[in-house]
Write the structure tokens for this entry.
Amino acid sequence: MESLTRTFKVQIILFLLTTSAFLQAQADESLPQLIRASQQFDANTTLEDLLTLPQEQLAQNFLNLQMQLMSRSEDSGGGWASNGGEHHLQKDNAWFLGASSISYCIERSSDFFFSKSQLQEMVREGFNEWRAFFSNYKLTRKLDMEGPKRKVSFKDGISRTVSTNFVEVPCQYDQQGQVKEIDGGVVFLFGKKNSTITNYHRVGNVEQLGVAIRKSYDHVNFQSTGFIWIDNFSAQRARMKHMVVHEQGHVFGMKHDSVFVMDEDVAYKVSDDNNFADDFFGKIESKAWKYRLLENVEYVVTANFGRKFLERAREVVAPRNQRPARTIAKCLNQDFMPNITIPKEARLLFRLRPRGCHKFTLKFTQGPRATKVKIYTLKMETLRGTSIVLKGKMFAPKIPPRESFAPGVFSEFKVQTHERTFLKWLRLLADHRSPELPIRGHFQHGNLPLATRITNRKGIFLEVFLPNSKKWWVLNNIHNRFLTKSL
């Protein structure tokens, strides 16, 4: 009996050590703090120490710490969480695959800033916009793959795509009046809590403005059950909708920082004291932060997104000259940036006056399909109507690209080759295209080649080498810290 108890304890400990939340906590070195915060384990607790605990106490301590680790999944204000115990690659799985329609219901607290009909409209708009997004980027294709060397398919042989059709139904309630979960569906709770949300906040980050909580992933029918909770944090519709669309993105399997609305710093963005323009709230993409570069489409590289740049710019130029303040305000009103925000060497290169305004746009023109070299153009415009266009040749470096932002699912699939058929855990993506970025190459400015690197970090991140100063010049938008680096 004693050996069975020890075996049970070891199984619990091993289960804890293999959870995705535990691995994440190890990665960011926050585990000791979490352990101490749980008030159950000591940071110096060893395996032998755990084995001496009574079986019931160990099991309860494990559940407490597991919930603590689960709640650590997000502390940026707009979170994702699961029930824990899953492989870390499952955390971004699309909740629903292959269903013709998914049911959802909406419940709100009596004191919520928006009426139920207003919230219904926001949720409906969000789902419609995500459906259009998936269609625009052709993310509705089947997840299984068939190639010359192997075929990967679902174990039951059914081809599936990410489900994008959601239908509202009335909420159901238990005997205590709490909203019941929808089997294979989503419950939206605006300011109202049930036992799942209450337990989450008991050990989680109470400062979060929203969270998507999914139960254990359904690897059989791929119809997972979950909740989306939104705090009553703002009376502005655009800000509230932005949080709704962000949490909906997790349901579709979108990762943080995959696109504008999925910014991991979403709480800062929608807070009442932020400096971002309302025009971009509630939208999946922005001018400079797209999911993927489309051919022959111009992307703004130096967008300011309406941020109140004037006060900060005054601090920079005030010791020398007060006159640029009016010009700076004019730049922002026209969605241009003040020339004083770029290095002097770059201004000389593009013949820009210190008191003027500029805008840089990048365009991907593809180039010959049979070659790995891609053609890009970098266009500089001023408010006076002048412009300079540089052509560049770019290629992907011979290093593995970063993990794709494409939605998909990590599960056990059937793999068929010429020799055998077997089961294997894989991540299949709705987007079969390889990421265009990062790339490197050069733009040609007259007879002068300018070495260039283009990456995707909260939008397009462009680095150009200035030969005269022998320094890299960074062009990017407000989300990837344009002002911080330029000033």
